[in-house]
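User: quick one, fold this
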Amino acid sequence: MKKSILYLLLICLCLTVCCGTALGESAPDEMTVEELNQAGKDAYGAGDYEKAMAYHLKAAEKGDAESVCSVGSMYYYGHGVEQDFGKALEYWRKAAGMGSGQAYYNVGFAYGAGQGVEQSYEKAMENYLLAAEHGFALAYCPIGNMYYYGQGVEQSYQEALKYYQLAADQNIPDGLYSVGVMYGHGYGTKQSDEKALEYFQKAAELNHVPALMFIGQLYAEGQGVEKSYEKAMEYFQKAAELGHADAFECLGDMYRAGAGVEQDYEKAAEYYRTAAEKGSQKAAESLKTMIEEGLVSE
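Assistant:
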C-alpha cells in the first residue's frame, strides 16, 4: 500500500486582474460588492478576463477581501496580465491582512514552492496554520503533509494524521485518501486494511482519482478484498473517464490479458495509445511490444 501523499496543489482561487480598462458601464458604482464579485466570476467563467478584472478591482476598491485575493490569483496565473509572482504575493498578503483564509493558504503555497519569495517551509506552515484558523479547511491537508514529511516542523505521523482527519471530517477528498494511507501503513495509528479501504471508498465516491486507482489495484491483486477483475475494471474505468493516464494503461493491460473481460488486443492497443498520448511511457512500450509481436498493427 505504499503510495506517496501528493502535495496539495494550489487551488484555482478567485478571478481578477489589474489593468487600465475603463470601468464605465461594465462596473457601475451603484453595484454592491456581492454583485461586482458575481459579475466578475461570471466574466471569468466566460473567458473575459479584462471584464472580470474590472469588476473585481471595483469590488476590491470597496474593501472586499475576496476580490483583493482574486487580483493576486490573476497575477499568479498570468490571466489577463503578465504573470508576476511578486505582485500575486502583494495582493494575497493584503487580502490575508483583511482576514482571508484563502489568501493565507496561497501565501503558504508560495513559500512552500518558492515562487515569488525565498522558499521556506517554516513560513509555509505558519501561513497554512493561519489559513486554517481563519476557517479555510483545505489548509488541513498541506499541514498534514508537512508533518508527514517533516518539512518546517518535527516529523510526526500522529500530527499528520490529526490534520488529515480534520480534512476528512470536512469530506475533503485528499483528506479522506490520506487518512486511508495512514491506516494502510499503520502510520500514527494501528494498521487496519479495513479502515484504510473505508476511507479510500469515501474518497473514491468523490471522484478522487488516486483512490479510484488504488482500490482498482486492490481488487486486481486481491489485497484486503476478494480478488475481482470485474470490480477492478469498474474503478479503472471511472478513473479513465476522469482522464487519468495510468487508468487507461491498466485497462489496456486487462484487455490484453483477458482479465475480467474477453481478451481483445485491438481494445488493449486503443487504451495503450490513449495512455501514451497522455504521457505514459510504460503504455507506449506495451503498445510497441504488441506491434512487434504482431498482435496489432501500427
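User: anything notable?
Assistant: The chain is about 65% helix and 0% strand.
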